[in-house]
Specification:
2-enoyl-CoA Hydratase, Chain A, domain 1; about 200 residues; eight-stranded mixed beta sheet; alpha/beta; 7 helices
């Protein structure tokens, strides 16, 4: 059974308590959809993320985030940045208490790039990338022309920065890997993981 945490919120973020049938587990699932205004995070969308993180902590459930985001919604200005700060604070409170798994499905630019540093496990799709400041700023400040992939592609984060724990072909494979990883972890720090035969 799926329980939506917030409905009718404008923006790219949606959250729900979801039952993962393959592993018989409940999780709090956040999806930041890059097809909605490039995943721009409005104050309301960031509120959805913060509420999801608070729910994960209160219910002692793993927090799973699928992220494809261009960062804070520049139309909203400071309000969007404030919203993002509240979301980051709520996610940080989950750290060390419930597993935090982030799947980067597209861009993770600016604040969302910092989000992956708060995660216990990061899974990136081949086409995804993550950085705080993009190629345009790098070129303006250093004169070095660099691509998204060279600056923060999944390969860079898997082999050089160490941020990505796993790189997969697509969203579907990533979500299967989330279930695989969760099969080794308890819901929270107060539980013991169920032994798994390998």
């Amino acid at each position: 059974m799926t329980v939506h945490l917030q409905r009718a919120v404008k923006g790219a973020a949606a959250a729900e308590v979801r039952w993962l049938e393959n592993i018989s587990r409940r999780v709090v699932w956040v999806d930041v959809d890059e097809t909605v205004r490039r995943g721009a995070l409005s104050a309301e969308a960031s509120g959805v993320i913060a509420h999801a993180a608070d729910t994960a902590r209160e219910k002692a459930l793993p927090l799973i985030m699928a992220v494809g985001s261009s960062g804070a919604d520049i139309v909203e200005g400071v309000a969007a940045l404030h919203g993002w700060g509240l979301a980051a604070k709520a996610i940080a409170k989950c750290s060390g208490y419930v597993p935090i798994i982030t799947v980067v499905t597209g861009p993770a630019v600016s604040g969302p790039a910092l989000l992956i540093g708060l995660s216990d496990i990061v899974i990136m799709t081949n086409e995804s990338y993550a950085f705080v400041t993009g190629p345009t700023m790098v070129a303006e400040f250093t004169g070095v022309v660099i691509s998204n992939d060279e600056l923060g592609g999944s390969d860079i984060h898997a082999k050089q920065s160490g941020v990505a724990h796993l790189v997969v072909a697509d969203r579907q494979t990533a979500f299967a890997e989330v279930e695989h990883v969760l099969s080794f972890l308890p819901d929270n720090v107060n539980e013991i993981a169920t032994p798994t035969l390998t």
